[in-house]
């Protein structure tokens, strides 16, 4: 019988994901020599080499590549056993891994954490902030319990719960205060500042302006809304920001804010989790806390993909 431990499988999964002993060891909270020893013991137990080692990086062997998705399935199933045990209890306690996109986390996270801690003091809340594709990947692989993103994500294995709609506002230099609000057609002729590739908010802004790609006048790809607003304040161009970001991002910037005429650009904020998650009932309760934290009411018939 093959003698393999869960610890070894988790270390191998970390190494397969990071492709580097140092980063995998840091992510696993273990020393690099200890990680290397555990991987070597796993290779001996399985009777084959999992890695091609070099001074700078680690590559999986063919055997390692075939093993990696099986290991992820095992780890996900084990984690779901723990979730099943927690779901059977009356209280909501233990680890809760929440992912959020960068255009939501700075504005909602403090309120969500405060409310969840108050309502469920035994929860160990762990937050991951990154862009939607990475969140969905980590959610499907079982490394997150849920994620708060802009819908839809259209992943068949996930349940989507719409929470609330949020409008976008136009941010212009302070000198534009009181001038007419441009139409979406006029926006195509302006210097529109956007988030860098990969942010769904960038795609939503381009969609509103009926653009397939960034306009030639664009001078900046930023990785935060804060940078965009400060560049507008400097007179470089205009941008769009979601309503929840207004109070935080414009308090120290000399800019003017305007609403568009109907139909206003907007996005739907929602939560997603695996259809197989034993925590589905608890996560649905948490979705109510998210709405409470945002000061919004969740729309009726807002759940898609939930197994009955």
UniProtKB/TrEMBL annotation:
A Pfam family this chain is assigned to: HTH_1
Keywords from the named record: Activator, DNA-binding, Transcription, Transcription regulation
InterPro entries in alphabetical order: LysR_HTH_N (IPR000847), LysR_subst-bd (IPR005119), WH-like_DNA-bd_sf (IPR036388), WH_DNA-bd_sf (IPR036390)
PROSITE patterns: HTH_LYSR
Stretches assigned to the HTH lysR-type domain: 4-61
UniProt similarity note: Belongs to the LysR transcriptional regulatory family.
Role according to the record: NodD regulates the expression of the nodABCFE genes which encode other nodulation proteins. NodD is also a negative regulator of its own expression. Binds flavonoids as inducers.
Protein name stated in the entry: LysR family hydrogen peroxide-inducible transcriptional activator
Organism: Bradyrhizobium japonicum
């Amino acid at each position: 019988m093959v003698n393999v431990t869960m610890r070894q499988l988790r270390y191998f999964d970390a190494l397969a994901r990071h492709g580097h002993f140092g980063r995998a060891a840091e992510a696993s909270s273990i020393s690099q020599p200890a990680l290397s020893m555990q991987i070597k013991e796993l290779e001996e137990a399985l009777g084959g080499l999992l890695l091609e080692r070099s001074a700078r990086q680690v590559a999986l062997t063919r055997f390692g590549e075939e093993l990696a998705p099986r290991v992820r399935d095992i780890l996900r199933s084990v984690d779901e056993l723990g979730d099943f045990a927690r779901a059977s209890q009356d209280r909501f306690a233990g680890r809760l891994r929440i992912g959020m996109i960068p255009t939501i986390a700075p504005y909602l996270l403090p309120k969500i954490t405060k409310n969840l801690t108050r309502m469920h003091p035994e929860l160990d809340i762990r937050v991951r902030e990154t862009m939607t594709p990475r969140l969905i990947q980590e959610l499907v692989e079982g490394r997150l319990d849920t994620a708060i993103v802009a819908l839809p994500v259209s992943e068949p294995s996930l349940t989507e719960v719409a929470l609330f709609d949020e409008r976008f506002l136009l941010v212009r230099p302070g000198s534009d205060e009181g001038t007419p609000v441009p139409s979406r057609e006029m926006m195509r002729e302006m210097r529109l500042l956007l988030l860098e590739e990969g942010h769904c908010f960038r795609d939503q802004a381009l969609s509103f302006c009926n653009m397939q790609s960034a306009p030639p006048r664009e001078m900046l790809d930023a990785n935060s809304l804060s940078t965009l607003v400060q560049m507008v304040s400097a007179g470089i161009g205009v941008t769009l920001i979601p309503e929840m970001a207004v109070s935080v991002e414009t308090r120290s910037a000399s800019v003017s804010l305007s609403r568009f005429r109907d139909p206003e650009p907007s996005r739907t904020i929602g939560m997603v989790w695996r259809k197989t998650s034993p925590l589905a009932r608890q996560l649905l309760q948490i979705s109510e806390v998210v709405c409470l934290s945002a000061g919004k009411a969740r729309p009726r018939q807002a759940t898609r993909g939930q197994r009955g």
